[in-house]
Amino acid sequence: MTKRNTDSKVWDPFGTLRRVLWIGGGQWAGKTTVARLLACRYGLTAYNYDYHDARGHNDRRIARRIELGRPPAAPDPDTTWVNTTPQDMAAETLAGFPVRFEWALDDLRALVAGRPIIAEGWGLRPELVAPIIDSPRRMAVMVPTDAFRDRQLRELTRAATVGHGVGDPARAQRNRLERDRLVADDAVRSARRLGIRVIEVDGTRDADAVADIVAEHFRAYLPAPEDGP
């Protein structure tokens, strides 16, 4: 029996990873919205990293805690969001991305689609994606400006609060926002080092216009748009 090669750069049983288009970047930049718009325009399969990471990967997250000798339950919300610093939060998030990326690759390997797959999420880091893609044009990194992030916080209910029972919600929110900024800045540095395009979202263009920019970046890999209803 042939031993399966599980190296993420090699093992791609259905050729899926070689055909993925990747959108990484910062929180609240509109990555999910743009991916959905492009999926509808071009008949692509959209993969939402945040959804799978928060739900489909929870069993693997618990198993990893046990493997590392940690309690299976996640730390209490105050430990995670309040009694810490944004710098420590960002460092922990960045350190966890490589393992979480392997879980996302397993999801993607299992997909078979007649058209490309567009994968989006903040855990799809440039330095993790770069070894898989044959060209930096297969990835774009979207990041919000500070002004656009502030607007998202005002207009999106889910962005305005930490969705956990914490003793100091205001501090938890400040910590989260600064963590998100630090993680986004790190993604920008990584992308520029690797020659991957960075798209700043400042709110002067609507979602369709931003999707146009991303579509033009991916033009060589996109099929013809599907006819509308």
Helix content: 40-55%
**Overall pLDDT:** 89
Structural class: alpha/beta
**CATH structural class:** Alpha Beta
Distance between the termini: 50 Å
CATH architecture: 3-Layer(aba) Sandwich
Poorly predicted tracts of residues? 1-6
Broad shape: globular
Strand content: 5-15%
Total beta-strand segments: 5
| CATH homology-level superfamily | P-loop containing nucleotide triphosphate hydrolases
Q: Topology as H/E string? A: EHEHHHHEHEHHHEH
Q: Give, in spatial order, the strands making up the sheet with the most strands.
A: 2-3-1-4-5
In CATH, the topology is named Rossmann fold
Rg, please? Answer: 18 Å
Number of domains: 1
InterPro entries: P-loop_NTPase
List keywords for this structure.
229 residues; alpha/beta; 10 helices; disordered N terminus
Report on this structure:
The protein has 229 residues and is α/β, with parallel strands linked by helices. The chain has a single domain, classed as Rossmann fold (3-Layer(aba) Sandwich), CATH 3.40.50. It has helices spanning 31-42, 49-56, 58-67, 77-81, 86-109, 126-129, 146-155, 157-160, 169-194, 207-217, and strands spanning 20-25, 45-48, 117-120, 139-144, 197-201.
